[in-house]
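Working notes for the structural subgroup meeting. M.R. asked for a predicted model of this chain before we commit to crystallization trials. I am recording the input and output together here so anyone reviewing the notebook later can reproduce the run.

Input as submitted:
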Amino acid sequence: MSAAEGPLVVGVDTSTQSTKALVVDAATGQVVASGQAPHTVSAGAGRESDPRQWWDALCEALRRCGDAAHEAAAVSVGGQQHGLVTLDERGEPVRPALLWNDVRSAPQARRLVEELGGPKAWAERTGSVPGASFTVTKWAWLAEHEPESVRATKAVRLPHDYLTERLTGQGTTDRGDASGTGWWASGTETYDAETLAHVGLDPALLPRVVRPGEVAGTVRDSHDLPFSKGTLVAPGTGDNAAAALGLGLRPGTPVLSLGTSGTVYAVSRRRPADPTGTVAGFADAHGDWLPLACTLNCTLAVDRVAALLGLDREAVEPGGSVTLLPYLDGERTPNLPHASGLLHGLRHDTTAGQLLQAAYDGAVHALLGALDLVLDEDADRSTPLLLIGGGARGTAWQQTVRRLSGRPVQVPEARELVALGAAAQAAGLLTGEDPAAVARRWNTAAGPVLDAVDRDQETLERITGVLSDASPLLERGTQTTPRA
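Returned structure, recorded in token form:
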């Protein structure tokens, strides 16, 4: 038995490229053990993964946690949002999951917005205007391109739902992850019958939406994991909602997350509905709302630019007037799904380090442009911006966010905030507490605060100008018309 003060819980983060598991002392928040295992993602036009890899990775991650995982009294799974998991009558994947960053459904997204009342109607109904990331557009793409897969589908799940169901044997989801599908109505907090009928999706194929604080189920007998039968399973949630729990986030505190994707979000008491589509009106995992803006190109795109230049990712240099929009995977904010990277203002005296800094600037510009839309009008603009995710400890990322935001920046010392948020959700089942209050008790947001510096308005305006002038080119992207 471990020397923990309280019961142990397990928090899981099944992300785009790996699954991580933390065994956490519910009393203190101390991480007792951890493990991680990778997944693969397809290359080419789409972004797909076999969901069975996620289960295998979870098994391996927990194996690496050792004996501590056997003692857990509750478990919760946080996961990448939006992914479309289609299962057959045996619960096996019909095909690989279509991931959040698969933008092949951009044409279907445009059609759905037009066919169901336009952007304002979508925002009022679901809280968001769906783009190619949203699950409803992926289902529409599948119906158009692989009707045989649709006919074989007997259950539709999100990534975190898939793992939770393999633990419990029951099909469940939560309001936070459901709000990113495009078929969950934020006003009524139910599945939207009109949307489902329009895309030909039987609501009987969807999981039950578990309420915050409700037990989703218990671990069943037939599994390969080191949990006792009857171990409590929490609802789980999407990765951003889990990270918000992991920070113990209060309304009005902004978060900027630097990962494969970049996100900026804040908890709000008000149900968001942005008809421009810049802000997604997601629900959070404990009864409030999580208005959020997301970019497809963040740390991986900047690292790719560094690799092309033969530079270390920290080898930035100031100065110059070059602009680089690192839209290597298309882009979601701004909504340019067919865009590619764009370089403007190159001179003989431009250095490789300045090019790399321009990639950082281009990535951060899109996120900061959405920050004011994410925050409530009465939010305190002097509140430090919480910087999290894989890039948060990089000096170049920190300094770029400081310079372009003009805000103080706080870097929490706690790592793996998605898994910590899932662990806090699991702990809440045992203690009856709000999971965000559990995380605040664990002091997960503690970390150094970098003072505000003068905002680099000149760079922001230059990038905005290039983006505006190049919009027709970016919207056309790299698609070409074949020669006769």
